[in-house]
Amino acid sequence: MVQDLYQECYEILLQLPEIYQPVLAPGLMHLKSKRLCSDRLELIINDLKDKEASINDIGCQIGFFSLSLAKMGHVVHGYDMDDKNIRICKLLNELNDIPNKPTFTKVAFGVETTDCFDSADYSLCLAVFHHIIHLQGLDVAKDLIITLRSKTKKKLYFEIGQSNESVEPWSKYLPDMGMDPFLWIADFLRNGGFKNIQILGRVPTHLTEVPRYLVSAS
User: Fold this and answer.
1) HSE toward the beta carbon, residue 196, CA cutoff 13 A
2) In the structure, what pLDDT confidence band is assigned to residue 46 with cuts at 50, 70 and 90?
3) What is the arithmetic mean of pLDDT over 173-202?
4) Three-class secondary structure assignment of the chain
């Protein structure tokens, strides 16, 4: 049975355009991810002091953050729009020994789906909003930040692709974030109802040599 789960997970992982996050399952960790992710996780863990807090992972991808935080005792719900990602998350959930397993739901983060997202103490929204701006426009992104604020009781952990990552197709759809993208990011979050914006760190990506800001917002 376990071997069947591994085999199905392996086959679906190979169907993805890329393996973006590390694969959290013994026997599959040899599949190299495009992005390290442990650097962002460490910054979040160092800031997240609450034990067993509830967490929404918006755009959970293949569950690296959801599974990692659930292993620490948090109550985690991951959301992603891709069927394959959600299936992989559920398979990895079965392959990991986690007493309080995270849950995963297939849903796109959009204006018409906001009722599908439960409130939580903390929200993660990592590398999602530049795709929202690209595909749905800046006005929709502004509305969704307001929604995210209403769903987040304590603090949001937020990362967005930046306009200075000019080699990426989505970058031309982003507003000019200026010389220091943090200033634009902070204003964007404040306009959505967050007040206290803090830089947790600057993290590399696999796309360019430009580091991104990882921030907390409350």
Assistant:
1) 4
2) very high
3) 97
4) CHHHHHHHHHHHHHHCCCCCCCCCCCCCCCCCCCCCCHHHHHHHHHHCCCCCCEEEEECCCCCHHHHHHHHCCCEEEEEECCHHHHHHHHHHHHHCCCCCCCEEEECCCCHHHHHHCCCEEEEEEECCHHHHHHHHCHHHHHHHHHHHHHHEEEEEEEECCCCCCCCCHHHHHCCCCCCCHHHHHHHHHHHCCCCCEEEEEEECCCCCCCCEEEEEEC
Length of the chain in terms of residues written: 218
Q: Which two tokens stand for residue 188?
A: 């964007």
User: Could you report the per-residue pLDDT of 126-143, keeping only the tens digit for each?
Assistant: 999 999 999 999 999 999
- Computed over every residue of the chain, the mean pLDDT equals 96
